[in-house]
Design goal:
It contains 3 helices and 42 strands. By secondary structure, it is mainly beta. Strands 1, 2, 3, 4, 5, 35, 36, 37, 38, 39 and 40 form an 11-stranded mixed beta sheet that branches. Strands 6-34-33-32 form a 4-stranded antiparallel beta sheet, with no helix packed on it. β22 and β23 form a beta hairpin. The protein is elongated and about 95 Å long. The chain starts with 5 loop residues before the first strand and ends in a 7-residue tail after the last helix.
Amino acid sequence: MQPQANFVGQNDFRGGCNTGDMPFRLALDQYQWAENMVNRGGIMQTRMGLEPVTPDLPDGNLQGITTFRPTGSNYTLLVAAVSGKIYTTKQTNGGWESWFELPAIQFYPNASRILWCVGTKSVTRNPDGSLSRIPAIRILLMQDGGFTKAAMFDGSVSRHLSPNAARRETPLGGPMAWVGDRLWVCKDQELIASDIGDPISFYENVSISSGGSFFFPDTITAIAANTDLKNLLVWTANSTHVVLAGIRDRTLWTTTTDFVNEILPGIGCLAPRSVTVQYGLIWWWSNHGWVNLNTALSAFRNSTIAFQDRPMARSKGNLSPLVDGIAAGRFENYMMVSVPSGDSENAHTWVMDQSVGYVLEGQDAARWNGIWTGIRPLEWATGIFDTSERIFVASRDYVTSGGTRNRIWEAFQDRNDAGNRIGCQVETRQWTIPGALKGKPQYVELALSELQGEVRVRMYWRGTRGTYKQFSDQTITASVGPFNTLQWASFTADEELEGTRNQSRFYNSAQVDDTKPTNVTGFVENKDNDNEDRAFSLLFVINGQAAIVGYKFFINPISDIPSGQVVPQETYPLPERFVTQQGESIYNDATMPAYLDRRGCKPGDI
């Protein structure tokens, strides 16, 4: 007797994305994969959009972006570097101004990155060597990794700095950090500290009695203020060190026990732009993967490293070997980690959210949402504009005419990219058949909300083998509101207008035709029809603004074979046989297996 039809389903995605475990072992609130979606409140939504900063930057070697608000200015500037030149722009009521090239600054055009740091100058050195306090001035410091002299910009003056014996200004070097009222500069294996209260004066460094500089076992790859804002973290490729930079009296440095201390031997940092602070922790890309300071310290104590990127294994497994350009950013509760997956540039941005399942009484555990695509972030930069925090990203974008274009985008805008619909998708966990029976997929009922504008929805299914096969393809029209329709083109002053809300739909897919052979792409792994399997997953592909609230997946169970069967040997020699990442089978010759001929199935039947 045929078992009764039943369904499985999901209406809570709070467990987040997880590609590090077998798909059928995922928790009931997890999913395999998501692209260009966010998971807030356990509901999968089209991600926030990107809006370009226009006009575009000049062509050339894009080297970075930062934000900087000069002392006394009403405007926060965007500052970008292209081929060694530094450009600034600001936003006024008329939009973004044209990019202005800072005079008297020219870095090495082929440097991979420009490194930034903001320090505060509050003292000046008199001719007799004494110090006088002055009104504090914010200064943006810039380095190109040691090719060219450092440079500074305070909002009006821009120039390179002179580290010679006469002026002893900021030395050329690499990563920088402002901690303990001093600028700390890395130069190969050396860490150098500025004079107190002056990021462009380094007179004290020549005095051994005042501490001098510090040397590390290998080239310094990154530095950053710890979350306590008192100590300085210093990384090489294979170790992590802490410097007690909060001790302001420099004469105490040489007598302070463990003023420089190695805290994480074997755990270093490979990407200077990966260092970021989020959720009260400092995070970075180590020589083993994505970690934070708490998990790294725990690893030091118990020899077990709890990498924080295991759920992103699908993307991590396809990384370029050159990871020094990995860039991280943070905005509100989100953390973005842009990595070179499947590309020499950062084509995937991993997104973690602290508020996947927000509860008023406390914090929910952070979860990976999935990846964002569409741009290739080189560097993220946040800043306060007026009274609001905003985030920008520099990207080397592919263009349809070929080549790349340097662009700056503002992230976390309305759910479209420059007015264009966003393509997104989510791949569910694999659902096993209750009672360990085989089953056949029937159809899906999908609950959608937050629909706005024209939205295309496609649904697919697959078993444990073979490619995804389409249930249905439908376009939904959810009008934006009365202000864009003819019947509301005019209204009188005494009329009260009310906005419209985003719409929702219950959407049923088409039924799978059990009479039609479905094994066209899975013949290497599976001699049965693909619609006969012990587990199935779904793929929802959406183009436009929408949210997936939940779904029901109806499966018709079928009985197992009542007795054992001998599986034919895969005798040798055999033609080479491959299975692509999408599950498609490939032979190295044109001969199709005999079992396909017996069943009368060939490519193109479905």
